[in-house]
Each structure stands twice: as C-alpha cells, then as structure tokens.
Specification:
Subunit structure: Homodimer.
Oligomer: single chain
Bound molecules: S-adenosylmethionine
EC number: 2.1.1.228
Strand content: 15-25%
Largest sheet: 5 strands, parallel
Strand order of the largest sheet: 2-1-6-5-7
GO molecular function: tRNA (guanine(37)-N1)-methyltransferase activity
Pfam families: tRNA_m1G_MT (PF01746)
Number of strands: 9
Protein name: tRNA (guanine-N(1)-)-methyltransferase
Length: 241
C-alpha cells in the first residue's frame, strides 16, 4: 500500500526538498506519491489575493475561507486526513507520526500570516478527519517547514522506506526514551576513547550499557519523558539507574 501526500501552499518552492534523499527515493520507488498545489490557483481576482483583515480587528491578515474551501473541495478525497499545521495545535510527536503513517491520503494545508479562517477547519471536519498539529512550542512564519518536518518523520516509518542499515526501532522516542551516544572508528581520537564495553563483544553487556545510557540521558535531558513511562516498562536494573 502506498501513501498519497498533497500539500497546498502559497509557496510551492518551499516543498522542493521533499524530492531529496530518503523521501525523494520513496517517491521514485512509488512508495509515496506526492503533489504540491499553489493555493493561488483557486483565486479569481487579478491580484490573486488569499488574505483579508481579521474580524474583530487586530494586526495581521487571515487567509480567506472561500479560496481554501475551493482548493480542499478539489484535493480532499473521502479517505483523506486533513492536517493543518498551527502552533495552536496538539503536539506532533512520534506516536502521531505512527498514526499518520498508517493512513492512505494526507493533505497538508499550509497557513501563512495569522493563519486560516477557522471555518475552513470546521467545514472540512464535516467530511474528513482533521488534525490541527504543532511541531513544537515556537512560532514559524508558515506551515511549509512544519509540513516538511511531519512528512519526513512519517515517511521513514513506512515499510521499506528505511534501509536495513538505518532501523527506526532503536531511535529516540520509539520506546519513550532518548537514544544514548553512538561511536565509530577510530577507537581512540584526540585522547577520547570509545567506551570499552562497546568493544568487548559481550552482547548482553552492550545492550545493558545502552539501556543504562538511554535512561541516564533521558533523566538528565528530558525528565518529563520518564514520568510518562509505565512502571511495567522498567525492569529492576532500570529502576536502580
Ligand atoms: N496566529 C497564529 C497563532 O498564534 O496561533 C500563528 C500564525 S503563524 C505566524 C503562521 C503559520 O505558520 C501558521 O498558520 C502555521 O501554518 C505555521 N506555524 C507556525 N508555527 C507553527 C508550529 N509550531 N507548528 C506548526 N505550524 C506552525
């Protein structure tokens, strides 16, 4: 089964990197089909304007519902999920990435300015699943970069997209923890040695060491993640760390 991705934006050029590297190869292999659509295609006036001043006053401009409505009527299919990137959305994290990787058609509606008239979301929600998602607690100028982030995180979870050499199972966030440090040759570099256990050949000791480093790093950098781990997921040795 392949995944269909459509992105609607006033800056189609922003999405060019999708054709690079991992996602680009998945598109070439037919695992993902990808379309970018210029929102201005659905404008009717000579200025191709997509925004207007906000009801209730205040600074900035809001994207007009009529143009977005026409665009979505054309691009949304019955089995699509509409994703609206917004800093006011629920957090896009690895578990949301897994959920979205199981879908067949994702449509991304990239906002600019102060965002899109809320009725666009309300109207689309009468027909399809709509998810308003934030990629983190900061404000970008538009939804395009957030869309790139989500597409890359989703694409690498699709079966056959990652090669054997880059498995996703040990990644940070896949088991609720951060991944510990990695090392490659040479064994000693600028007076810094690779931890001896990694060169021991003792696989049980190596996996215990990796687990310990993962727990330690998570406790220091992201204690909030440890709080979310169910007690059953930690063994006795884990709890001693
Ligand atoms: N007025 C909006 C608010 O405060 O919620 C911010 C609008 S922002 C300047 C313009 C667009 O950038 C948004 O419509 C959204 O598409 C995108 N955007 C900005 N920050 C984002 C984030 N953290 N996650 C996802 N999209 C974001």
């Amino acid at each position: 089964p392949s995944l269909r991705l459509d992105v609607i934006t006033v800056f189609p050029g922003y999405l060019a990197p999708v054709h690079e590297s991992l996602v680009g190869k998945a598109i070439e292999r037919g695992q993902i089909s990808f379309g970018v659509h210029d929102l201005r295609r659905w404008t009717h006036d000579v200025h191709h304007s997509v925004d207007d001043s906000p009801y209730g006053g205040g600074p900035g401009m809001v994207m007009r519902p009529t143009i977005w409505g026409d665009a979505l009527d054309e691009i949304l299919t019955a089995d699509a999920t509409l994703i609206v990137p917004t800093p006011a959305g629920r957090l896009f994290d690895q578990s949301v990435a897994h959920e979205l990787a199981a879908e067949s058609h994702l449509v991304f509606a990239c906002g600019r300015y102060e965002g899109i008239d809320q009725r666009v979301v309300d109207d689309a929600a009468r027909k399809v699943t709509v998810r308003e998602l934030s990629i983190g607690d900061y404000v970008l100028a538009g939804g395009e970069v957030a869309t790139l982030v989500m597409i890359e995180a989703i694409a690498r979870l699709l079966p056959g997209v990652l090669g054997n050499s880059e498995s996703a199972v040990d990644d940070s966030h896949s088991n609720g923890l951060l991944e510990g440090p990695s090392y490659t040759r040479p064994e000693s570099w600028r007076d810094l040695d690779v931890p001896a256990v990694l060169r021991s050949g003792n696989h049980a000791a190596i996996s215990r060491w990796r687990r310990d480093e993962s727990l330690r790093r998570t406790a220091v950098r992201r204690p909030d993640l440890l709080d979310k781990i169910a007690p059953g997921q930690l063994d006795r040795r884990d709890r001693e760390i």
